[in-house]
Amino acid sequence: YGGEVGLEGPYGGGSSEKMDRNGNVRQMLFNRANEWPWIAVRDSIRRTLQAKANFPELRGDPKKGGRGWYTGGQYDDNVLVVARTWANPDRKSIVMINRSAGNVQMSSVGTGDNNTVYKDWLTDKNFTTNASGILQDNDNTDGDGNLNTFNVDSHNGRILIRGGYDWVNITGSVKDGAGNPVPGAVVDIDRKSHWTTTTDAGGNYSLSGDLRKVLTGNRTIRVWANGFGIVDISTNIVIAGGVNRTQNFTLTADNAPPQPPTNLSGRPRKNAAMIFWQPNTEGDIQSYIVYRSTVSIAAGSFPAPLVEVFSGYYYDNNFDGWLDSQGKHVGLLENGATYYYRVRAVDRSGNKSALSNQIAIVPRPIKATFWVDTRDSGQSVASVDVEGDALAFGDTKPERNVRGWTQLFSNGDGTFQRTFDMDDSDFIEYKYVITTSGGGRIGEGDTGHLFNDPAGTNGAENRGEIYLDAIPNVEIRDEGDGTMLLPNVWRWYQDRAPRAPSGVGISAGPNILTTGWTKNAEPDLQYYTVQRSTWNSGFSGAVASVNIGKDQISYVDTNLLNGNTYYYRIRAIDRRANIGDWSSTIWAYPRAADTTAPVSPSGLAAYGSGTNGLGSVEVRWNANYEGDLAGYNIHRSTESEFAPVAANKLNIVLIS
């Protein structure tokens, strides 16, 4: 069964079904045993598939090396010739394929291997190479008397294995403990499909003949039948003593259930749940039955199963639900609802284990926050949109064909952000689009606004382009508490270091200095580093550093020496260990307590300023002469003789 299209569907004939959701249900027309030319090439195709299973050099990815074409002359005609090398460097095969309706004689085919045996997997014929590495037909099967020539039959080929191989026939019987034959038992060698068969009505099996070539070497033979345990033996199969080997088996009844699966756990997803458990270690485990309920599942119960799976995990999204008349998914698991899960193991004989531990999962989306810094964009920014997968960003009416844009919210400082409900493991492609104060729209990657990094791209790709290694993939994932933060800087793919802290200041007290700064805007800030020097503003000599929390905007340095000058600078570090630049350097010296306030400023006067004196008010006063003056505060009121309080203070920092 299968389909001629990829697993994502859709089927032909206008059907909207998908193979990943509706199953692989359409039978292919592959039973052509009596049709020409299938009847002529069927056995060669079977042998070719077996060759790929047996010889690793034939399984290697040709795009990653290990393939050498023969070109020129006879190799550019009807017979394709290619050498395959892969995995173990000692392994090599030469493959020949004749596309024509007639036999083709090949001449003086070089191998690069002197005095070496090559054996044809399709015919079991031995070839050797001479001292020059030329393949020789020692039996002169083409009848021309020239050992350097041989035929490749029509619509056929040769698979020449360097070093050759040996194979044997393996036959035997399978019986139960009472000596009765067991029909329908499965016998396999090394779990290879072409070395797998079943016993007949008399309990006999045979892996023999050139279509069942069992290669010599260390092998594991396994036997199983329904209601019996698995029996396996490890043996070294050799050619000595003849090509026929007998191996009989006795099976023991299996009525024991497997152990229940352990360590069942799970993660919530958007309208879905992902559950995991520790796979059982019994060798005859067949599958796992998953149970789901909106109420607790009692231990020892047998509720209706949700699904049967073969691996130790299951992604439960209710089979993608279904589409309503507007093309929206419905019938999925509900976000915010509680679902209970248990799992039981089933062995090949149908014995079922007890239930696993129970877990409860509440589906929820990932709250993905997209944040962009446009402060260095050089644009007069009125608003910013995020453009990309329209449905992922909640835009159900895309304005640019299949893409749409969704406006972000301004933080008032040149940064913008918005939080979207997304699904774990979504891969997102997106970019930011600025709307200027003049109404123009400028997208990252547009002409004149190409991305600044990374090197090797043309600058026009989206963020998260999966097919470009130079551009970081953007996978939606839970970073904790169902949230994810995606901080970006306009026109930079890679995460940028935080800006240097601004608004730095310092105040002094007895044996103490307090530094302060304006909190950074970057939402992915991890911590600040405050550095102190007692030597000079270049921070050479005695230097001390301390890391403080991302939400702090001051640092109190105690136990200092009064009258000694101390220099300070601050920098920010984000969660990816990107280190920002140092702030400007500030300095001061701690001093004894000062309880004398400066005198009130004199000469206070106010003047109209701007056009016709109507634009603003300019305030002037005489400077104070105290040597320890730190600065001034200005208060304003619409009432005369008002009391200066914090509510009517105009300045944030002292005016110096």
In a few lines, what is going on in this structure?
The chain is mainly beta. The longest helix has 17 residues, at 38-54.
* Number of H- or I-type helical stretches: 2
Distance between the termini: 83 Å
**What is the number of independent domains?**
7
Counted beta strands: 44
Indicate the structural class. mainly beta
CATH architecture of the largest domain: Sandwich
Uncertain segments: 1-14, 24-29, 396-403
| Biggest beta sheet summary | 7 strands, antiparallel
CATH superfamily of the largest domain: Golgi alpha-mannosidase II
Mean pLDDT: 87
Shape: elongated
Q: Calculate Rg over CA atoms.
A: 39 Å
CATH C-level name of the largest domain: Mainly Beta
Query: What share of the residues does DSSP label as strand, in percent?
Result: 35-45%
Which fold does the CATH topology of the largest domain refer to? Immunoglobulin-like
Helical fraction equals under 10%
Characterization of the model:
This protein has 656 residues and is mainly β. It has seven domains: 1-30, no CATH class; 38-162, Golgi alpha-mannosidase II (Immunoglobulin-like, Sandwich); 167-251, Immunoglobulin-like; 262-361, Sandwich (Immunoglobulin-like); 366-489, Immunoglobulins (Immunoglobulin-like, Sandwich); 502-588, Immunoglobulin-like, CATH 2.60.40.10; 605-648, no CATH class. Strands 1-2-3-9-5-6-7 form a seven-stranded antiparallel sheet, with helices on one face. Strand 6 (126-129) and strand 7 (135-136) form a beta hairpin. The longest helix is centred in the first third of the chain and has 17 residues, at 38-54. The model is unreliable at 1-14, 24-29 and 396-403 (pLDDT under 50).
